[in-house]
Amino acid sequence: MDIRISRPLLVAFLVGGLALSAPPQSQAQSRHQKQDQSAEDSAKAAQDAKAAKDAKGGKGNADRKGDQSQPDPRAAQQAAAAARQNADHAQRDAQRASQQAENAQAAARKQDSRKNDQRDRQQARQQQQASERADANQRDAARQRGAQQQEIARAKQQETHDRQDQHKADQRQFQADHRDAKAVEKQAKANDRADRRDRRISQDEQRKLITQQQSRVVEYRRYRSSQQNLAIQVAAQLATQNRTAQSRYISNYQRDLLRQQQGWNNNYNYNNDPYFYSAPIYRYQRAGSYYTVNQYGANLLKQAVNAGYQEGIQAGRADRMDRWRNDYRNSFAYQDASYGYNGYYLSQDDYSYYFRQGFQRGYEDGYNSRYQYGRNSGGNYSILATLLTTILGLQSY
Predict the structure, then answer these.
(1) Which end of the chain is more exposed for a tag (fewer CB within 10 A), N or C?
(2) Which H or E element spans position 235?
(3) Is residue 18's pLDDT more than 50?
(4) Cα four-point dihedral sign 216, 219, 225, 229
(5) CB neighbour burial string for 155-176, b if at least 16 within 10 angstroms, e if fewer
(6) Strand order of the sheet with strand 282-286?
(7) Predicted pLDDT at 189
(8) Which pLDDT score is estimated for 21?
């Protein structure tokens, strides 16, 4: 009896184990079919086990085995119940596994959602930081433009003030030169009374000098007319090169020349000008040649050097403000070299030569923001007296 019960139970457990290894079914009909099939398989397994035992027992046990050839209903029921129980366990395990899988998927989706949210927030922060940096750069650029515009405005205002001061200084200098000329004339007259013949030139020399001067004035005024359009063209060209300060300086230079031309006297009285009857008292050397000049001509030579220095100051500052290279030779004012000249007393070549001597040194001081070669006295720029003496090299004649 023990052997007969244990084998069907063993078979039932084997069948239950197979049921556990099979994939879970989600519908109730499939589950009941599987349970019935398991019960039938258990019963058949019990019959096969009994038949095998009877065959081994031989003929001597035929009667006893005959009594036992019928299957035990209770064992089959127990096996079927055990199979159904195992199937229920397997189904519950499958449900738990399915639930765990769903939970795992939900957790994975939740984790992915958190990652996406973190990525979105990080991208939003990066975009906000980039926008803040762009705004900061725009503010910095605006501040720089504002500072540059303020610097240009201050420089323009300073240039205007310097021009006004320079104009006043020119007037004072002209008055001082006029007083000096009067003083020299007075002294010359006093000397002439003592020895008039030695200190005056002859009438023929005077007439020759006046004729030469008249031709010189006509030639210079013709030159001045041709330079007027050129100055306008140069100023426009400088503006296209973004050399705003230099263009403004050239325009002011041309304006001052026009103002100077307005003061020209077309009915000049040469006979009343002491220059045309005063004898030379100085000589100077230029380009290997010596020239003679009286006091009035010497005063104009000094004026040429100082006029060049003060114009060089303005031109050098303009190139520095435009961040242009140091290049005084290509300045229009250096090439023109006629500011302060009206065609009298000296040739244009003489005046331009000494004007450029002062301009070169004034440009260097203006470009480098210093006063190495000259000084500034209330807006009146003048070259150092010792340097002026060296440049002119006037010798008593």
Answers:
(1) N
(2) helix 203-240
(3) no
(4) negative
(5) beeebeebbebbeebbeebeee
(6) 289-293, 282-286, 395-396
(7) 57
(8) 46
